[in-house]
Structure formats: C-alpha cells, structure tokens
Specification:
single chain; 730 residues; alpha+beta; Immunoglobulin-like; nine-stranded mixed beta sheet; 15 helices; 25% helix; disordered N terminus; binds 2-acetamido-2-deoxy-beta-D-glucopyranose
C-alpha cells in the first residue's frame, strides 16, 4: 500500500477536484492549530511544578535490623520479664524511594522497620549517616521512618530515661542493628532506582481486628460515630510499584492493627502478624530465593492502630472464662490481671499466622486488581514542635494548651492484649494515696500546673518533670507530611486511636481541598520519628482508659497535632517548606555506656565443644511433625555482626543428583525456631525446631546450628554444629 493512500484513503487514484484537496488541507491545518492551543491551555492550567503521566523513579530495599536476640527486654508490653531468648523470624527494614523522573531531586523515602516504634535516637542517627553519604538529597523533610509496632523485638534503642528503664539501658548492639539496617535498606533502594509506575488500591478487610477500648470510642459524639460503620478503620491502602518493563518492584500498604498476636509470654524475636504478611508476600514474589530474600520488597506499615487489637475473641477472664468487656477490664476473681484477649487460633503462633494470612490475602487481592495510577508532583515537609507548649484554638472564645508529658494511673493497668501490674485498672480518674506517696517519695511531686493541665488524668509518672539522668520523655516532636501526586502520607509520632486518626485525616483532606489540591487519599503512617505513646480524641481522653492515660501531652494533644499538620499542608501547597521554622532541634544525648545486661562469658560442659549435639533428632519424621535437636551453645549476643548474611540455623536437604546438601530454610523462616536457654556458669543450650510443612518433599535432611562463643579473656570465635541426618516421609 502507498503512504499517500494511507493518509488520504478517500482520494484514491481518481483525483477528484483541487477544491476538495484544499478543503482537506484546511481541515488538517485547523486540527493541528486546535491541538496546539488545547495543549497550551492544558499546560497552562496544570500546577507549576507538576509533571505529566510519566510515572516515577522507584527504588526498593530490604535489610536486616534484628539486633541481639537474647537477654534484651522486648519493647512493647513494658513487661520486664519478657526478655528475648531466640528467634522465630528475622526483623527487616524495608525502604521505598520515589522521585520525579524529570526532577530527580524531588523525592521521598518511606521506611517501614519491623521494630516496636521509631525512636528519636534512631531517627537522629539515621539522618546523620544519610547526611554524610548523600548531602542534602535525603533530609528531615523527605525521609519518613515508621515502625511496624511488633511487640516481639529487642528494645534498648532509646535515649529517654523511661524507655531505658524498661530496656535495661541504651543497648548499643540493638541501636546499631536498627540504624544500620535502616540506612542499608535506603542505600539499596537508592542504588536500584528505575523508571516505573505506582498504582493505588483500597479495600475493606473484615474479621481481623476489634476495638479494645469500645467504651472510650463510645464517648465520641454520636453524630460523629454515625458517619462510620465500625469502631475500627478496616480499610487497607496499597501501593503497587512496577517498572517500565512491567516488572513488579514492590508493594507498600497501610492497615490499622496492633501486632500483638504474640502475647507478652513470647520470648522469641518475631515480626508478628504484619511481619508474617510481608513474609508470605515476599516469598511469593521472590520465588526461587531462600526464605523470601530477593529483589522484591513488600511492606505492611502501621497506621492508626491505637485502640485496635488482633485478638478478636475479645477480653475474657482467663480463670473463669467469662467476658470482661467492661470499663475497667476487670474480672470478679483476680481483678484486671486476669482479663486477657486471645486471637482466633488455638495458641499465639497459630493466631499470628491466621491474622497475618488475612492481611496478606487482602493485600494480594488489592494488588491483583489495582488499576488506578498515581501521578503528579512529590512534596514533603517536616517540623519540630515543642509539643509541651502548643496553644490550640477550641472555638471563638476559648483556647486550650498542651501539657508537659505525664502518664496516668491507667497506663500501669496495660490492656487486654497485655495487662499491667499491681492491680491497676483502666478507666482510673482518681489516684491512690499509697501510689501517690510512692511517686512523691521515689520520683517527684507533680506540679500543680501539670496536675491541672492533665485533668481528669490522675498522674502516676510526671515524666516531663523528671530529667535525671536524661529527660524521661521527649518534648521536641516531629510532624511530617509527604505527598505523591494525589496521595498524602501523614507521619505521626505515636499511636493514634481510630477516631483520632479519622479526625486528622479528614481535616488534612479538607485543608488540601480548600487550597485547590483535591487530594483524594490521605493515609496515616504510625509510630514514626519519635515515640510519644498514644493520641486519643478529647472525648476518649475523659474516660482515661490505657490509651487516654498514655496520651502524654494532655487532653488537647490531638488538636495540637491537627494544627501542626495543617501548617505543613499550607507550606507544601504554597511551596514555602523551606521557610518553616525548624527550631527547636532535638539533640543526640551523650549517654555513657551503662546498661544492665549481664556480661557475656561463655563456657562449655567439660569434654564438649560448642556446637556438639546434646540431644539428637529422631531417625524419621512425617510431615506435620516437629524435628528437634539441642546443641551446646554460646550467647547469641556474640552474633550481631553481618546480620544480612548470618543465620543461627539451616535446614538442608540431600540432593541425590548433585550429591550436595541444599539449604532449604534458615532462621528467617517461620517454620523454624531457634530457642536459647541459659544455664549456670555461662553454659547454655540451643534448641532448634523445624516444624515440617505438609508440602515437604520426602528425603534426607539435616539441621545445622551456627554461633559465636566468647570465653573469658578470649576473642569471639565462630563455631557450628550438625545434627544426624534424618528421613522425612509423608
Ligand atoms: C487484685 O484484686 C483482686 C480483686 O480484688 C484480688 O482477687 C487479687 O488477689 C488482687 N491481686 C493482687 C496481685 O493484688
Ligand atoms: C500467651 O499465649 C500462650 C500460648 O498461646 C498461652 O499459653 C498463655 O496462656 C498466654 N498468656 C497470656 C498471659 O496471655
Ligand atoms: C510557650 O510558647 C509561648 C509562645 O507561644 C512562649 O512565649 C513561651 O515562652 C513558651 N514557653 C516555654 C516554657 O517555652
Ligand atoms: C467554647 O469552648 C469552651 C470549652 O470547651 C466551652 O465551655 C464554651 O461553651 C465554648 N463556647 C462556644 C461559643 O461554643
Ligand atoms: C498546690 O495546690 C495545693 C492545693 O491543691 C496547695 O496546697 C499547694 O500550696 C499548691 N502548691 C503550689 C506550689 O502552688
Ligand atoms: C560525653 O560524656 C563523656 C563522659 O561524661 C565525656 O568524656 C565526653 O567528652 C562527652 N562527649 C561529648 C561529645 O560531649
Ligand atoms: C537417595 O539416595 C539414598 C542413598 O543412596 C537412597 O536411600 C534414597 O532412596 C535416594 N532418594 C531418592 C529420592 O532418590
Ligand atoms: C497439615 O496436615 C494436617 C493433617 O492433614 C492438618 O491437620 C494440618 O492442618 C495441616 N497443616 C497445615 C499448616 O496446613
Ligand atoms: C564449621 O566449622 C568448621 C570448623 O569447626 C569449619 O571448618 C567450617 O567451615 C564451618 N562451616 C561453616 C559452614 O561455617
């Protein structure tokens, strides 16, 4: 076919008249001119700094941040008996970097780390390292660090005294593992950035969480509650990232749920329900790689989970079995300590997997169906706010003020997910003379101003007035927003309750709208930057359950956050972020190396070596059973270097064809457990369990253990041990 015929098929060979040719030329010119004018108009009315449908530069990375898996108290339940003694799953930092393709300096970083919460110390140290490596490319404005809120990870990475007390000090090995893991995940994401697209999808996940303070929630105005069908947020928001070749790169999602399927008796390091969801997703997307480690990164980040529990059977008295769904979560026999909620499974391990699987399946469904693309500029803003001194406008005539930090009596009561001590109960709006006296004698007498400010909270710990040896609570707090086209991420420094989260999202949404930015999606990223416990609504605060008692800046905290975040929205929209005042800046405290961990001095039983088998595997197992072996062991705290390549264990299968042992599982697998038991005089035992999955291939297997010993006055030495071989059949 001739090109001319293609262009003007009507004309054919016959010619027709010059007139009709002129008419066609005229129409073509007219179309061209119209096209140019329309394009110019469209360009003119687009926001100045926007780019078209070009997608983004996208990078993802995952690095280990597990830290010491023994002898360090877990952070979350505040239970000092919950001290690490092994590992179910590893903890990871997952980083996502998004940049505008034609203005690569406009970028943002989102990190979701499998830790209890982000701490001010971690953030300050991460930012210091990023500055050394990348100058101003990654800065306070555009780097968001969020914790998943697992309650089964080591603490010790805080510089405020309160958290140091429950962590037995500032534990350098824990702090370094987290800081280095986060920086490493960002480095990886930085290095593999490529052009791609982001799709967003949202959906409701039912039967997976419940409100654990429904009577607080009921204190919110009825007119407000009527606008929602549930007392928890059940929407999952999911971002799917694909590159220009259509290759999957990563997935980032937010869902409001406490990762407390593991209760406060668990001593094995574990990323809990959301961690299991990430594990399943990454395993599926990184098929052929060992235990999910591979180029694909999937994160399940925290949101407004303040009053949201995964223990969906609800609170029951563990002695009598009756419900204790009352204002004080109180049991007739044994009081509040007997009132505990459990998950859907027959034990915490099964519950964790059931809840985690639900979360994974919903994300997968949203992932498969995602079609709405996000486009538009990237923006970010950050500010440090002295949260002890914010004046909020309540109405035309009245204003309120935030308070210096303090924790109420009900803080000590804990929750149905992990009750506290000494018969403290939730919903306490009056102190107790005995504990007041103890507080006054041991800590400090709270000032009248503080008492007045926090009302109706009776003050148990006047943390804002305690500064020795270091301030007990942070006062300079981060507020931060990042926008990616039509998506805004609010990085909040603590645990917002369901309704508190709804209120701030709604205000931010309308603030954008009022400024000609109809942002459609506002997500709340929890446990970011610095830990400030809880943020309830003013009405929930009046009830003083655990969440209200833990709202450390007083009844107007939420209003203060809403006000501070609104300032950020204005700065982003007006492109005046650089003019926001940054001061006062928090500092890295100069903390001497004091901690209360026992010293590490290993010894072995006479006549034995580290890694010797003490109790061997059976000769045969069927699928569904647990293969178990015990070794002479050394303190796992010796094994904190090179965590990205180190494993405490492997399960290996003999390959008849190649006559080699092939590693099928390591300690990151949820089917294996490494359980460390300390004996006397520095001796210890490592028990390794392999919960043999139903789909395991029959064959010959072996379990190996790896460790490092440190004897008195000797250097750290690597060792390993191997079980006898065993057969698995189905
Ligand atoms: C807590 O109070 C309950 C009910 O008054 C009582 O049965 C229980 O023994 C108390 N527990 C402690 C540890 O004092
Ligand atoms: C914690 O979970 C374990 C295992 O499911 C269970 O035996 C125990 O009773 C639970 N304890 C508490 C205090 O919830
Ligand atoms: C609190 O803020 C006000 C201004 O908003 C300021 O004048 C005052 O000095 C501040 N107080 C403290 C203790 O920082
Ligand atoms: C303003 O708020 C205060 C405190 O909540 C309240 O007492 C007062 O009635 C309110 N005034 C108006 C005009 O709504
Ligand atoms: C605090 O208030 C109490 C009475 O509520 C009063 O006796 C005391 O003098 C006050 N203290 C200060 C320092 O004002
Ligand atoms: C930190 O404290 C130690 C001991 O008190 C002191 O020797 C050191 O100079 C301090 N470092 C800084 C940077 O202040
Ligand atoms: C592998 O080899 C061993 C010993 O040579 C034999 O007993 C076993 O049946 C073989 N397994 C398979 C799956 O071929
Ligand atoms: C494995 O198989 C057993 C027996 O068929 C079954 O009871 C169990 O639920 C299965 N386990 C899993 C994780 O599928
Ligand atoms: C196990 O230890 C032996 C020496 O004790 C060493 O030769 C070997 O390389 C170690 N194996 C691994 C996998 O580290």
């Amino acid at each position: 076919m001739q090109p001319r015929e293609l262009l003007l098929p009507e004309m054919g060979e016959s010619g027709k008249s010059t007139l009709s040719r002129l008419a066609i030329v005229f129409v073509v010119v007219l179309l061209l001119v119209t096209g140019i004018v329309v394009t110019l108009l469209v360009l003119h009315y687009l926001p100045n700094n926007s780019h078209g449908g070009d997608g983004y530069l996208i990078g993802v990375g995952r690095a280990d941040c597990t830290g010491p898996v023994a002898e360090v108290p877990f952070i979350g339940y505040g239970n000092m008996d919950q001290i690490g003694a092994g590992i179910i799953s590893r903890l990871y930092s997952r980083a996502f970097i998004l940049a505008e393709p034609d203005n690569w300096k406009k970028r943002m970083v989102f990190v979701s780390a499998e830790i209890g919460m982000m701490s001010q110390r971690v953030k300050l140290e991460v930012m210091k390292q990023l500055k050394q490596k990348y100058g101003d490319l990654y800065n306070q404005d555009n780097v968001i660090l969020s914790g998943t809120h697992t309650h089964s990870g080591p603490g010790g990475y805080f510089q405020n005294t309160l958290f140091m007390i429950t962590s037995k000090g500032l534990i350098r090995s824990s702090l370094h593992a987290i800081v280095n893991g986060i920086v490493e995940s960002i480095d990886m994401a930085h290095q593999n950035m490529r052009k791609g697209r982001i799709l967003i999808n949202k959906g409701i996940l039912e039967n997976t969480q419940i409100n654990r303070s429904p009577l607080s929630y009921l204190h919110n105005p009825e007119s407000e509650r009527l606008r929602y069908s549930s007392n928890t947020d059940k929407e999952m928001v999911m971002l799917k990232m694909i590159d220009d070749e259509g290759q999957d790169i990563g997935m980032l999602s937010w869902y409001a749920i406490h990762p407390v399927s593991m209760n406060n008796t668990n001593l094995l390091t574990c990323s809990d329900n959301v961690g299991y969801a990430a594990y399943l997703f990454e395993q599926e997307m990184n098929k052929g790689h060992l235990t999910g480690k591979g180029p694909y990164v999937a994160a399940f980040a925290s949101s407004n989970l303040g009053d949201v529990s995964p223990n969906i059977k609800g609170p029951h008295c563990i002695n009598t079995g009756e419900s204790c769904e009352n204002l004080h979560n109180y049991c007739p026999i044994g009081g509040a300590q007997m009132c505990i909620a459990a998950g859907p499974g027959k034990n915490i391990f099964e519950s964790t997997k059931l809840i985690g699987r639900n979360i994974y399946l919903k994300a997968k469904e949203l992932f498969m169906a995602a079609s709405e693309e996000i486009n538009g500029p990237i923006g970010s803003a950050h500010q440090w706010v002295d949260m002890t001194n914010v004046t909020v406008r309540l109405n035309a005539t009245h204003s309120g003020k935030t308070c210096i930090p303090a924790l109420g009596y009900s803080f000590a009561a804990g929750t149905m997910d992990g009750p506290g001590m000494f018969n403290f109960t939730q919903g306490a709006i009056e102190g107790d003379p005995f504990w007041d006296a103890v507080r006054d004698a041991v800590l400090a007498v709270p000032s009248n101003e503080t008492v007045e400010c926090h009302r109706p909270k009776p003050i148990l710990l006047p943390t804002g007035e305690l500064n020795k040896p270091y301030p007990w609570h942070p006062k300079i707090i981060d507020v931060q927003i990042a926008t990616i086209g039509s998506l805004a991420i609010l990085a909040v420094p603590g645990e917002f309750t369901t309704m508190a989260g709804r209120r701030i999202r709604e205000v931010i949404k309308s603030e954008f709208k009022a400024r000609d930015r109809p942002v459609m999606n506002v997500v709340l990223a929890g446990l970011c930057s610095v830990y400030t416990h809880y943020i309830t609504t003013y009405e929930e605060y009046q009830v003083q359950r655990y969440e209200g008692a833990s709202t450390i800046f007083g009844p107007h905290s939420l209003s203060a956050y809403i006000q501070s975040f609104t300032t950020l929205v204005e700065a982003i929209v007006k492109d005046s972020v650089q003019n926001l005042p940054k001061s006062p800046e928090p500092s890295i405290f100069n903390i001497t190396d004091i901690n209360f961990l026992p010293p590490v001095i290993d010894t072995k039983p006479p006549g034995h070596h580290y890694g010797d088998v003490l109790q061997d595997v059976q000769k045969t197992y069927r699928v569904g059973e647990v293969a178990e072996v015990k070794f002479v062991s050394a303190n796992p705290r010796n094994s904190v270097e090179n965590m990205n390549s180190f494993t405490f264990l492997t399960v290996e299968k003999y390959n008849n064809a190649t006559e080699n042992w092939q590693v099928l599982y390591n300690d990151a697998s949820w089917d294996t457990r490494f359980i460390w038991e300390k004996g006397f005089w520095g001796q210890s035992t490592a028990k390794i369990e392999w919960h043999i999955p139903n789909d395991t291939d029959p064959g010959t297997y072996v379990i190996k253990y790896f460790g490092h010993s440190k004897e008195l006055l000797k250097p750290i030495v690597a060792f390993n041990g191997t079980s006898s071989t065993f057969e698995v059949s189905n």
